[in-house]
Amino acid sequence: MKILQIGSYLPPDLVGGAEYTAKCFADSFERAGHQVVNLRWKMPPSAGFRGSVAPSTVGGWELRAWRPMEPIRSAALTRKALFYAMEWVMPVNGNALNQMIEQEAIDLIVVHSFRGLGYDILKKIAKCNRPIVMVLHDFALICLNKGMARKGSICKTLCSVCRAVARRNSEALNLSPQVALLSPSAFMLDRVRSNLNLSNAISRHIPNPNRYNFLPRVRDKSGALTWGYFGRIEPDKGFVSDLFEAADRIHRHSGARWIVAGKGSMQDALTSFARTRPWVDFRGLLPEDQMAQAFDAIDVLALPSLWPENFPGILVQALGNGVPAVGFDIGGIPEVIDHGKTGIVAPFKDFQALSDAILSLDADRDRLKNMSIAALDAANRYDADKLEGQLLELVTQVVSRQDFSALP
To answer: Can you list the domains of the chain with their CATH numbers?
Structure first.
């Protein structure tokens, strides 16, 4: 089977969790004997109205579509408005896309993301008469900004703009002979599926078959506690003044150290914060092969996300390393953290409760040890070989175009 993976960024660009998952998908397909071709977004040297398809210098193909900013970047409101407008109206060269798909003899299209490629890409690939698997890394199919959150508040329903987004994407995907929605979290799957109107689609909840390096051990040491945060240094990940105040409070009451790894728009603020606090260790962005060592240095992981996280792979890494986690009750976080057993789920946006949870584990080392043991046991739920098997079974069913109504 030959599989086309589509994404704003794809390996060798590993800018975040979605891109690492795309790499793990490709590895899974290739281990099973399939071939993988990538189609990624590329900024052309000059502005052009129509997204063109051309071979990439790093292998695979590029969809060259000019935008006023990179899809992964933040920008001023005017540039963001222009970006969203171009996403909505700029067409993709459908003939060139179809020729590439025919030339590569593609059997299945797997879409990880389409920001930068524009909404038109879904209509054009659907008309190529290939089955499609939409991997739900975020709310992009039903939300303009992908996060179902605005100005720090969670959206309970779709606004008029996002209803138009959902309607347009539904109409596009209904042109495909078969569509599967694949989500690593039940929360994300339910929210997206309920806001789309797809007549020829199935949906599956399969956690990402990502493979991580682990240094598993039980957290039972004495002495000062060390807690950590690993991920994007962004406001939507909790890097707001409340988090810095919580960090000060934790250290003031316990002497705990804080290790942070990642990059993002708030890293200058974090650097300034750490400059006067020797107990803060900001390590910048770490490559994947160094993450196990970073986990080995902490006793508790914090995930203070302020948007409905889908399926944070960082929590699976915490489990596999025997690190209890503390996070907010939002999105897919409670699906991975078993409250009171493998970690603590704090009320959403309650940074005092988050810091209290970390302090409680510092004060009760027996409880911390028991959670660490439970975390190592819970990691078996996310065995990569088992999840890879489920993924391969799904894509085989989609390509064979079985009667989806008969599937479990």
So the answer is: 2-211+384-406 (3.40.50.2000), 226-382 (3.40.50.2000)
